[in-house]
Amino acid sequence: MKYLTIEDAIGNTPLVALQRIDAQENAKRGNVILGKLEGNNPAGSVKDRPALSMIKRAEERGEIKPGDTLIEATSGNTGIALAMAAAIRGYRMVLIMPEDLSIERAQTMKAFGAELVLTPKSGGMEYARDLAEQMVAQGKGRVLDQFANGDNPRIHYETTGPEIWEATQGRITHFVSAMGTTGTITGVSRFLKEKNPAVQIVGAQPEDGSRIPGIRKWPEEYLPKIFDPKCVDQVVNVSQDDAEEMCRRLAREEGIFAGISAAGALWVAQTISRTVENATIVFVVCDRGDRYLSTGVFPA
Fold it and tell me: Which of 150, 124, 148 is nearest to 136 (CA)?
């Protein structure tokens, strides 16, 4: 008898309909809003997909082998997912992250056996990415580079997009995703646009001055190389206050305990819903809320 492994538990996450948030307004317009529960992945986020994909495909190309050291700059979820994937496949994992990210994320990475290098808050992810490249140049390991690695969007083209298309029976009209590395939105867009070019792809990014974990507005010189602007029809800015309030509402009103970036995507989805009719709007619930408890977003 062949048993499943933890790798087999990645993907095929549920797509669930919201039932209470703005329910009357959505129903009046004939709209349905669906959340793709990526927190159901074994390491708790959408990043489980590209993390395992990047490692396995680098192995297939002969670029890495078990026992090697992998280095990655991360804002949290990719680091956790890579730490899990490295544990599964037998790698030493060194993760570089800004010091102001939530303690839950750091503790989870360490639980999977990863080593952490914390960088100054003032430098943001840009400094962490630069340091990762410096460490590679010094021969300290290899960077998979989620920001430039085509295996990141590729896995969403191969899995996330098809899952959404099948679950909605092709009825999806809008896809909303937070924009961080942009792997999810780029890969899903490529698949959905092949199926139906009329599907609208909408990215959520933070307003100037807002800090929303998992969503970034990159300076031009740090824009992820995997990002294809042709894959995104519209970008909508969301404020930190709106994202955090929606995060609390998701838990209280829908029973969906999600992170702040997922709530930002929902805020954008609701904004779209007020302007369209007979729409099927899918947003990505990127991760779970338990890794944000120390941030103060949820009431003590």
Answer: 148
Contact indicator for 214, 286 with CB cutoff of 8 Å: yes
Residue 239 falls in the annotated catalytic set: no
**Would the pTM count as exceeding 0.70?**
yes
Q: What is the pLDDT along the chain (300 residues), one digit of tens a residue?
A: 889 999 999 999 999 999 999 999 999 999 999 999 999 999 999 999 999 999 999 999 999 999 999 999 887 899 999 999 999 999 999 999 888 777 888 899 999 999 999 998 888 878 888 999 999 999 999 999 888 999 999 999 999 999 999 999 999 999 999 998 899 999 999 999 999 999 999 999 999 888 888 777 887 888 889 999 999 999 999 999 999 999 999 999 999 999 999 999 999 999 999 999 999 999 999 999 998 998 889 987
CA dist 255 and 248 (Å) reads 10
Q: Cα dihedral sign for 176, 178, 183, 184? A: negative
Residues 116, 106 contacting (CB under 8 angstroms): yes
Q: Give me 236's structure tokens.
A: 């909508």
Which candidate in 53, 75, 177, 261 is catalytic?
261
Q: Token digits for 139?
A: 């021969």
Residue 261 known to be catalytic:
yes
Q: Which of 47, 75, 177, 273 is catalytic?
A: 47
Q: How many CB atoms lie within 10 A of CB 80?
A: 28
Question: In Å, how far are 56, 148, 155, 177, 288 from 102, measured between CA atoms?
Answer: 28, 25, 27, 22, 13
